[in-house]
């Protein structure tokens, strides 16, 4: 596949997981007239793109506490879900409780620089009732994760948007008793955004506040 070459007039927009989330935010920013080029970022080094300014903005889910990263207002929400094999007992449910995930082999924090506190939001160490969640498997690659899940070796507590990239033998089942993840845009603090990037950001925030 040829490498994506960003249009210099477009926002270089980092995303992880579903590119449809990037499309949703660009629709929010439509009034700016500024296009965006969605570019995947590596979850093992998620902030490198904005810190080195090879990305203008990146899509963030869950709150960040990084002193050098600024965040937009909340632009949308991504409901919680569990990713399981189509043959898994939970796959037939229309929705499940996070309590149902205690005892399953889930995923631990990917290798690299993703902060521990972010992963604790993605896959909490305990359920709301205090039951431990077993965070066994470690990978930073979605394809490798899906392979483990498809073989019945793991499940992943994640986000409903993963349904956009899940293969046919995988099911993404809503988790009804965890709050959705807030979706924001992030950029490097202390560096003025180029004019077209600022217009995109402002338009997205204004539309989301309607």
Automatic annotation (TrEMBL):
Signal peptide: none annotated. SUPFAM superfamilies: Periplasmic binding protein-like II. One of its GO terms (molecular function) is DNA-binding transcription factor activity. Residues 46-207 form the LysR substrate-binding domain. One of its GO terms (cellular component) is protein-DNA complex. It holds the Pfam family LysR_substrate. Keywords: DNA-binding, Transcription, Transcription regulation. Belongs to the LysR transcriptional regulatory family. PANTHER family: HCA OPERON TRANSCRIPTIONAL ACTIVATOR HCAR, TRANSCRIPTIONAL DUAL REGULATOR HCAR-RELATED. This is LysR substrate-binding domain-containing protein. The lineage of its organism: Bacteria, Bacillati, Actinomycetota, Actinomycetes, Kitasatosporales.
């Amino acid at each position: 596949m040829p490498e994506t070459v960003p249009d210099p007039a477009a926002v270089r927009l980092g995303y992880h997981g579903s590119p449809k989330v990037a499309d949703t935010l660009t629709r929010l920013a439509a009034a700016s007239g500024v296009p965006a080029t969605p570019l995947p970022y590596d979850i093992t080094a998620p902030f490198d793109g904005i810190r080195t300014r090879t990305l203008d903005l990146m899509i963030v889910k869950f709150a960040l506490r990084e002193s050098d990263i600024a965040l937009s207002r909340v632009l949308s929400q991504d409901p919680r879900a569990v990713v399981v094999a189509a043959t898994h007992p939970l796959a037939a449910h229309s929705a499940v409780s996070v309590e149902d995930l205690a005892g399953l082999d889930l995923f631990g924090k990917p290798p690299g620089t993703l902060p521990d506190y972010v992963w604790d939001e993605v896959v909490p160490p305990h359920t709301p009732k205090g039951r431990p969640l077993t965070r066994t498997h470690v990978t930073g690659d979605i394809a490798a994760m899906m392979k483990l899940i498809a073989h019945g070796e793991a499940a992943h507590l994640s986000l409903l948007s993963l349904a956009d990239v899940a293969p046919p033998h995988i099911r993404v089942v809503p988790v009804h008793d965890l709050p959705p993840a807030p979706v924001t845009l992030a950029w490097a603090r202390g560096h003025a955004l180029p004019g077209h990037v600022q217009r995109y950001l402002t338009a997205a925030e204004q539309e989301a506040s309607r």
